[in-house]
Each structure stands twice: as C-alpha cells, then as structure tokens.
Design goal:
By secondary structure, this protein is mostly beta strands. It is about 5% helix and about 30% strand. It has helices spanning about 15-25, 70-75, 285-290, 390-400, 415-420, and strands at about 1-10, 45-50, 60-65, 80-85, 85-90, 95-100, 110-120, 135-140, 150-160, 160-170, 175-185, 195-200, 205-210, 215-225, 235-240, 300-305, 310, 320-325, 330, 355, 440-450, 455-460, 465-470, 475, 480. The strands form seven sheets. Strands 2, 3, 5, 7 and 8 form a five-stranded mixed β-sheet that branches. Strands 17-16-18-19-25 form a five-stranded antiparallel β-sheet, with no helix packed on it. Strand 18 (about 320-325) and strand 19 (about 330) form a beta hairpin.
C-alpha cells in the first residue's frame, strides 16, 4: 500500500473557535464550517473525525471516498482505501499527521476523492450555532502502468568533454515531467550505473552532457519520470568522448637535472666527475640513465601538444601544452615568453597574475582567499562579471570552458607537482625553456599552508625555491591535468 500524508495540522496559540479556523486553514480547507461571529471558546478543543460514507461512481471516472474510511461492505467490494487515524481530538497547541492509504491493486484507474473533516464538537454543551465542520478534499489519481520508455536515437561528442544525446518518446496522457540520464563504464554491471543529469520537460528530445574526460568511452541510458512514477529504461548506447584522454600519473618523480659533480672542499665540475668517492646526484637516477636532451634536458622527457592535444615534434615552434612523460602530467603552456603587459596576449598571457581563491572547504585549508582583490591584472577582466575576475578559481573555470588542448579537466597543481618541473642544474630560469616559455618568478600551487590559513604555497622558477605567500597577493598560474 502507498501511504499519502494529507494533513499536518498545527496550531501556534489560538484556542476555541480560532483553533478550529486555524486548523482549517492549515489543512487547506475553506474555514467555512463555523458560522461568522462566533465568540472564542477558551480552553476547548477540536475533534478530528474521518467520517464514513459509501463509494460513488461518477461519469468522469471519479469515485468519492468521502469521510475517509468506506463502509466495510464497500471495502469487501474492492474499495481499497482507509484513513489513519480516522478520528481523534486536537487540543490547543496540538498537531496530528493523517494518512490516506490506497491499495492500488484493488482500485480501478481514475481519480479518487477523500473529504477529511475537522469538527468542533468536543463540548456537547455548546450552543448548536457554535459547532461546525471544515474539510479538505484530497484527490489521488491512479494511472495505468507504463509499458514503454524513451528511445535514444543518437549519441555523439560535438566538442571536447561534451556528449550530445537525442531521443524520442510519446508520453501520451501520462503525468510525466522530465528525464533522468544515467552513465556507466561497465554496462553489464547494474551497480555501475549512476545518475548523471536530470532533464526537465517531457517534450525535450535533446540534451548536452558535460563533465567527461576526453578519450573515454561511455554507456548511456535514460528513463522518464513523474510524481512517484518512472517509465521503463531506454536502450543502451555507447559514445567516445572527443578530446585527449586523461593522462595517468606514473607515480614517479622527475630527477633534478644535475649532470655535473662537485669537488671537496669546494668547486663544481663541468661533467659528472669528482674527487669524492661517494656517488653524487649526477651518478644516479634518470639524469644518469636517460641523459638525452632531445626531449628535455638530461633525464626530463617532454612532448609538445597542439591545441587539440595531439603530439608534436620537439622542434615544433608553436604548441599549447606539454606532456611530462615521466610523471604523466600534462601542463598548460603560456602564449609567449611575455612582454611585461598583462592581458594583451589572450587567455594564456604569461604576464597575467591572479589572487589565490578556492571556495571548496574540503581543499581550501579553512579560508577561501580573495576573489577580486587586485582588479585588472589578467586577460578579459570585467569588474561587473565575477567569472572574469583575476583569481585562481575563475581562471581554472575559463581554461576548462575553452577546452585547452581538447580537455576540460584542468586544475591547479599541487606544490610537489609544480616542484617536479624545476631543473636544479639551472637558474634564471630553473626550468626547461625549450618546452616552457613564459616563466616569471612565482607560481601559485593549490596547496594550503597548514599552520596559516591565509597563505598558500608558491614555487619560484627563477631559482627553484618554494615558499608561501598571502592569498591576497598576485602570482602567475600554470594549469595541470591528470595525476592526483
């Protein structure tokens, strides 16, 4: 049986006649059960009485279940309805929840009506003109079972990270309101299906879904829904998302880039030699085993990517991103080395600066930072448009909206991820500029400072040092994707 809550009568302070009228209003009645001009009945109470009456069939397919519980002989004939509780007393400050139960297996299709009555009849010594009844009419419609569902007619990926779904469905007269689309990466496992997006409007036949990683293959299905009802599920379709695949972190760290040795008590050599017997940095790691400058200095290994995330030769003169082949991370590349002017070279201007801002309490270290502290220090700034503000969170959103290198899952790098780009064999600049032009001194990381929530960690690509700074100050940002 389906329980339907139809009354939650409450009264804050009124008594007597005011009590009866207030209850009538709160349960949705007309309040006309008591005649006008009746005086107050201090310390009285109102009686809740769900009265009996037989079912009635009408020409519009409605059956009246007046007064709640039908006579027993009517229930024997398949009425299938009852009110709980069917009577009781409500005193001042009292409340009562009343339920209408329908056994839909015993009822014909159609709309059923129940009159719930509130009767001021507690004190029989009251004059007849001070008693009365108010009521609320509740209608419950029992619909035919749904035997069909929507059919997905097409699924495509028109842009990086975006999936478009088209479908058809004829709801007829069913009270359906919209659709729910589900996704899975393993359609044969029922537990793998999760709700991805709600689509309001039963006449809608297309939706664009976002939040996917490029290169992934998804399985989709959907159903239609209404108040307490759902259609059968649609057919299952597969679609491959446009854009580059999410790079997987290797779990490895880059080496330092140092290929020379030091002597005791002082002095450095041009090669990996030393008067010290113990192995030094240059004798170990990728700088010793994979020392090839063709794809990055010493043990570093990078691949240039075009605007769609496709690999380019190391000699390419124009590229948009760089994949670190050692760590598995992919990095944003600035438009040029910079010219000292903020905002004149597009979204990825090397001269742009940002304040640190993160509204996610799970990752911001206890403080959100500053959303518009420094004003016009980045490309496209508009003081009347928060999405254009020069802060780290807004910049991440803009880069993802653009779909840089065919991806929409860019994020701020952690402190150690930024440090993985430092080439400790160099200074001014301490990074491979053949792959990463446009490097200023300080870059923000996403890492909060544990002991001081107003600060966040920064990395200096002039000398390879790291430090922390007030989030209200402005520094450069380099987006990353993959890893975690």
């Amino acid at each position: 049986m389906d329980a339907i809550s139809i009354v939650g009568a409450r009264n804050a302070s009124a008594t007597g006649t005011k009590l009866a009228r207030r209850l009538a209003e709160e349960i949705g009645g007309h309040g006309d059960g008591l005649p006008a001009g009746v005086g107050e009945l201090d310390d009285r109470a109102a009686r809740l009485d769900a009265r009996e009456s037989p079912l009635e069939e009408t020409g519009d397919q409605r059956a009246g279940l007046r007064g709640g519980r039908p006579r027993q002989r009517e229930a024997d004939q398949g009425a299938g309805a009852r009110v709980v509780p069917d009577q009781g007393v409500l005193g001042p400050q009292g409340s009562r929840q009343v339920y209408l139960y329908l056994d839909i297996a015993k009822l014909n299709l159609g709309t059923y009506r129940n009159d719930l009555r509130l009767v001021n009849a507690y004190n029989e010594s009251l004059p007849a003109d001070q008693t009365g009844t108010t009521q609320r009419v509740v209608r419950v419609k029992i619909n035919p079972p749904i035997t069909g569902g929507p059919t997905i007619t097409a699924a495509s990926s028109p842009a990086p990270g975006v999936v478009r779904v088209d479908w058809s469905f004829s709801p007829g007269s069913l009270p359906l309101h919209g659709y729910q689309i589900y996704r899975s990466s393993n359609p044969s496992d029922p537990a793998s299906w999760v709700a991805h997006q709600n689509v309001p409007g039963i006449q809608t036949t297309r939706a664009d879904l976002t939040g996917f990683s490029g290169g992934s293959t998804l399985y989709l299905k959907m159903d239609a829904y209404g108040d307490g009802i759902r259609s059968n599920a649609s057919n299952v379709v597969a679609v491959t998302v446009q854009g580059s695949a999410v790079p997987q972190g290797s779990g490895r760290l880059n080496d330092t880039g140092q290929t020379w040795g030091g002597d005791y008590p002082s002095g450095n050599n041009a090669t990996c030699t030393s008067n010290i017997a113990a192995p030094q940095d240059c004798h170990q790691g990728r700088d010793a085993t994979s020392n090839n400058d063709a794809d990055g200095h010493a043990g570093f290994s990078f691949t240039k990517l075009d605007g769609n995330g496709n690999p380019l030769p190391a000699s390419a003169q124009s590229w948009s991103c760089v994949r670190d082949n050692v760590t598995g991370l992919t990095w944003e590349v600035k438009a040029s080395p910079g010219n000292g002017i903020s905002g004149d070279e597009g979204l990825h201007d090397a001269d742009d600066r940002f304040t640190w801002y993160n509204t996610n309490p799970a990752t911001n270290g206890g403080a959100v930072g500053y959303d518009n502290y420094s004003g016009n220090i980045c490309y496209g700034y508009d003081p009347n448009n928060p999405s254009s503000y020069c802060n780290t969170q807004a910049y991440v959103a803009r880069v993802n909206a653009q779909g840089r290198c065919g991806a929409r899952d860019w994020r701020m790098p952690k402190r150690e991820e930024l440090r993985s780009l430092v080439d400790y064999s160099r200074y001014d600049l301490a990074i491979d500029t053949n792959f990463f032009p446009g490097n200023t001194w300080w870059f923000w990381s996403s890492s909060a400072v544990a002991y001081y929530s107003d600060n966040a960690w920064i990395v200096n690509f002039s000398n390879g040092l790291d430090s922390n700074d007030y989030r209200s100050n402005s520094h450069a940002v380099r987006m990353v994707r993959g890893g975690q």
